[in-house]
Amino acid sequence: MKKVSIGIVVVAVWALAVSGCGNGTDGDGDADSTGDADSTNDTTIEAHGDDPTVDVETDPPVDPDGDEGSEAGCPAAALGERLGVDHLMMGGSMRDEEFALAPFDIGNRYLAGDVPDEGPCDDCRVGCTVRGSSCANAVGCEWWGCWQWDEEPPGRYVADYLADTSGAGAVPMITYYVWFSVAGDVEGEPELAAMQDGWRVEKLLADYRFLCQVMDEDPSVTAILHVEPDLWGYGNQAGLDPAAVPVALSAAGAPECGSFGDDLAGLAGCMLAIARAEAPNVLVGFHASAWGAGHDAFSTSDPSVDLDAHASDTAAYMAALGADRADLIVTDPSDRDAAFDDYWWDDTNTAMPHFTQAIGWSQRLGQSMGLAWMWWQVPYGNMSLTENTCHRYQDNRLDYVFDHPDELASAGAVGIAFGAGEGCQTTPEHDDGHFVSRATDYFISGPVGLCGD
């Protein structure tokens, strides 16, 4: 991929500073001098509060039909056929240098930041501004459309990434986290309230349409589009019916969206309709937040919490949005290394929170929606690191995934996309080769089949 000028580095610093996402998970569009993007997140306290009034059940959800291996009982098999894979995919967000060291089969790039006021630009060098600043490389641009050499047309950052990733035999995944900035760098209820501003909604949808058009430039590339982490969870967290969250959708004037209501469900349906119209080769996955339905299902240590009901409630909310008409559902265990914020899962599956509860919740979510699921932004930390300093924090989730891929596949996962969600988190660049080594061993030894087959 083409090296870009130092101006792009400004974007990385800005994105790390402003991005925000719930469950302690926030997104960014961090672009560096290699043209790579990482992710960053800022802790949101409200997203972690356990609800002591929740009804209880300690057993994790199981497949009531006992037919994970069938396409009906395990949609991952059908999705795998569309992606051209028959096994649990492994990959994530990382530099090109590390991505080239193992036969990864999924690569993720995070798009965040604001968008041009007048809609997508034709030229990054002149006449293209975001928040009053030029998108020329010498300045650095907050809009993902100009995260490349400014003499190239806007959108080449994404177009090149899709071409390079698919050319390497992997599935490209784009995570779109733009509404936070368009809404005014706010989260939670203020982020939802900003949707009543038709000018902001129009900007979002114009930019989203442009992304879909870029992703459709080569129809032979099947990519995943991961839509707006946390946004839908905030509505769920507030206990609001999606139809009760007002959105100035009609003011945006998107032709595909005239039949949708001016509400959050209408926005989700509109974004899916635009993707279907502009990029039929793209597989769309909405983000389901494990903290949306009253408490964090992944972090709770309360054995009385009914995780099965929580997952079903989350699925019902996502279905009310229309997310069950998409192609997969994406969720995130955590974007921070465990030693960074002292947020650990018990890998013996004895004390909560543990891996069985997280996998079980994800399985029930997918089953209830009839969709394959994916874990995204799983931390890169590992227990061989001892410093617990910037870029070298411990965590046990990466190794659990590679030690127990059969558990994830049997529960309906289609893939695992690792990622660092804050500037000091562990990355493959700083982990002494641990992630690349584990991934290489996984592929060499024979990756596990989807649905546990």
Please give a structural write-up.
- The protein is an alpha/beta fold.
- 33% of the residues lie in helices and 11% in strands.
- The strands form three sheets. It has an eight-stranded parallel barrel with strand order 3-4-7-8-9-10-11-12, surrounded by five helices. A two-stranded antiparallel sheet has the order 1-2.
- Helix 7 packs parallel to helix 10 (264-278) and helix 11 (307-321) packs parallel to helix 13.
- The longest helix has 18 residues, at 198-215.
Task: Outline the secondary-structure elements.
Elements: H1 7-18, E1 30-31, E2 37-38, H2 76-83, E3 89-92, H3 96-99, E4 106-112, E5 129-130, E6 133-134, H4 156-167, E7 171-177, H5 179-182, H6 188-193, H7 198-215, E8 224-227, H8 231-237, H9 249-252, H10 264-278, E9 283-287, H11 307-321, E10 328-331, H12 338-341, H13 355-369, E11 372-378, H14 397-403, H15 405-410, E12 413-418, H16 434-445
Helix pairs in contact: 7-10, 11-13
Distance between the amino and carboxyl termini: 36 Å
Count every helix, treating DSSP H or I runs of 4 or more residues as helices.
16
Give me the side-by-side strand order of the main sheet.
3-4-7-8-9-10-11-12
* Percentage of residues in strands: 5-15%
Question: Can I get a quick summary?
Answer:
By secondary structure, this protein is an alpha/beta fold.
Features:
alpha/beta; 16 helices; 453 residues; 11% strand
